[in-house]
């Protein structure tokens, strides 16, 4: 305030105070805006960049930039700090310390003057990160909340700074999200039997069918099916949505498409039943391939059969305590529709000795191609019958034991049940 004290001094008092007041007013008008206490716009902004924009659980996300800047403000900020808020909502990494700039300025990491060295700018996505909200409260009490979004992982950035010549502080909060896709494929498999069939005839193609479905939330490309053992696979012309199948299965209105397929193969050796596995695969937009398998057993109508022809002869003993020679010849044939392996032929002989005792003898027959042969010596045979049987063991798909009886001279199929009779040798004379 300017005052006058006397008439003499009035002019001096009047002039001098006016000069001081004018100087003060002029100085006030010349002060830079950022020194006006409580009179500047304290706008502070922040941004964050991440890559890639689309990823899977387990992929690594890189934070490409954390930036702070003057957001239409005219204040100078100083003593600033910046933090990254990561998707698990418990990890916060400080990336800047002590940043400051005038109106229109900015700073960023990596590469800025205030960046803290050694900070990890990567994050590996975990399943629990998807859809989760995150939040961080700065040391000055500024809260940076980031709400969760379905099928997305969110990253946040929070910053705060002092304002020059002011008790105010400036703060900023921002976020960026990454879309998480989950590719998935499923496949079914069933035996493709006609309505009147219960099994496939051995030697004919085994037919199967199934459906491949996109069970994920993103389009699958290069969809295919393979079979083990190898088979020819044919896809239907249209998908479940009516779209022409072009090798892709889309997600339409949140529902994954499916496609039917069929195939067939003929085993080189007909089994009793055949188990095989189909594998369906597809690749998403990021190049990740997903697979799924399905197996089933398709029954085969096998008809294992073996037929046997046999001749047997006995050379009786000529003395009371001599031995008889029992000789066998014959052949076998495969009368079924599948190969037979590991064939073993045994003969089981039941006979009565000269002393009237019933006894048995077993021996293997030699198989040469389809021909049988063998012989055994037995104690002198008494009058009566000699029962001859043939046992056959098969080890391809089934196990069977076949027993029958044969005459000494006439061949029969294995189902025949004749008896082999022998003559009683002449009794020796008392003088012999």
Assembly context of the chains: single chain
Mean pLDDT comes to 79
Can you list the strand order of the major beta sheet? 2-11-10-4-5
Query: Uncertain spans, ≥5 residues at pLDDT below 50?
Result: 1-38, 388-432
Provide the helix percentage. Answer: under 10%
Question: What is the class of the largest domain in the CATH system?
Answer: Mainly Beta
Structural class: mainly beta
CATH architecture of the largest domain: Sandwich
Report the count of strand segments: 30
What is the first-to-last residue Cα distance? 174 Å
What value does the Rg take, in angstroms?
A: 50 Å
| Large-scale geometry | rod-shaped
**Main β-sheet description:** 5 strands, mixed
Structure description:
By secondary structure, the protein is mainly beta. It has three domains: 44-180, Immunoglobulin-like; 185-301, Immunoglobulin-like, CATH 2.60.40; 306-422, Immunoglobulin-like, CATH 2.60.40. Helices cover 6% and strands 48% of the residues. It has one helix and 30 strands. It has one helix at 7-30; strands spanning 44-51, 54-55, 60-70, 77-85, 92-101, 106-109, 122-124, 134-137, 143-146, 152-163, 169-180, 185-187, 190-191, 200-201, 206-214, 221-228, 232-235, 251-252, 255-256, 258-265, 273-283, 289-301, 306-315, 323-334, 344-352, 358-364, 366-368, 371-379, 384-393, 420-422. The strands form eight sheets. The protein has a five-stranded mixed sheet, with no helix packed on it. Strands 12, 13, 15, 17 and 20 form a five-stranded antiparallel sheet that branches. Strands 1, 3, 6 and 7 form a four-stranded antiparallel sheet that branches. Strand 21 and strand 22 form a beta hairpin.
């Amino acid at each position: 305030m300017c005052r006058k004290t006397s008439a003499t001094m009035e002019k001096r008092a009047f002039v001098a105070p006016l000069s001081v007041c004018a100087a003060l007013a002029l100085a006030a008008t010349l002060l830079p805006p950022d020194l006006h206490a409580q009179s500047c716009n304290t706008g502070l902004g922040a941004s964050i960049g991440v890559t890639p924009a689309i990823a899977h659980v387990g992929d690594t996300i890189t934070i490409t930039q954390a930036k702070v800047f003057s957001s239409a403000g005219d204040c100078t900020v100083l003593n600033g700090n910046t933090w990254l808020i990561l998707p698990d909502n418990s990890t916060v990494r400080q990336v800047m310390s002590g940043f400051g700039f005038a109106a229109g300025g900015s700073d960023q990491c990596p590469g800025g003057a205030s960046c803290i060295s050694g900070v990890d700018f990567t994050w590996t996505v975990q399943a629990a990160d998807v859809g989760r909200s995150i939040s961080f409260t700065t040391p000055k009490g500024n809260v940076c909340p980031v709400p969760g979004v379905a099928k997305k992982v969110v990253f946040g950035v929070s910053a705060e700074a002092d304002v020059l010549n002011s008790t105010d502080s400036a703060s900023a909060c921002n976020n960026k999200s990454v879309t998480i896709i989950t590719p998935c494929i499923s496949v079914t498999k069933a035996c493709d039997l006609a309505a009147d069939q219960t099994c496939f005839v051995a030697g004919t193609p085994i037919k199967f069918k199934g459906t491949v479905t996109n069970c994920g939330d993103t389009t699958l490309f290069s969809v295919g099916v393979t079979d083990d053992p190898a088979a020819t696979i044919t896809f239907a012309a249209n998908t479940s949505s009516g779209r022409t199948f072009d090798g892709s299965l889309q997600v339409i209105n949140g529902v994954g498409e499916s496609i039917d397929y069929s195939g067939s193969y003929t085993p080189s050796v007909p089994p009793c039943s055949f188990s095989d596995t189909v594998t369906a695969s597809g690749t998403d937009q990021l190049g990740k391939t997903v697979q799924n398998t399905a197996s089933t057993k398709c029954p085969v109508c096998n008809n294992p059969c073996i037929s046997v022809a046999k001749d047997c002869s006995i050379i009786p003993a000529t003395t009371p305590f001599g031995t008889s020679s029992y000789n066998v010849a014959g052949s076998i044939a495969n009368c079924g529709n599948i190969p037979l392996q590991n064939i073993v032929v045994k003969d089981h002989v039941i006979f009565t000795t000269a002393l009237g005792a019933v006894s048995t003898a077993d021996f293997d027959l030699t198989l040469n191609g389809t021909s049988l042969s063998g012989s055994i010596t037995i104690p002198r045979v008494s009058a009566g019958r000699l029962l001859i049987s043939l046992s056959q063991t098969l080890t391809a798909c089934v196990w069977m034991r076949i027993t029958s009886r044969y005459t000494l001279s006439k061949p029969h199929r294995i189902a025949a049940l004749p008896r082999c009779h022998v003559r009683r040798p002449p009794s020796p004379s008392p003088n012999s």
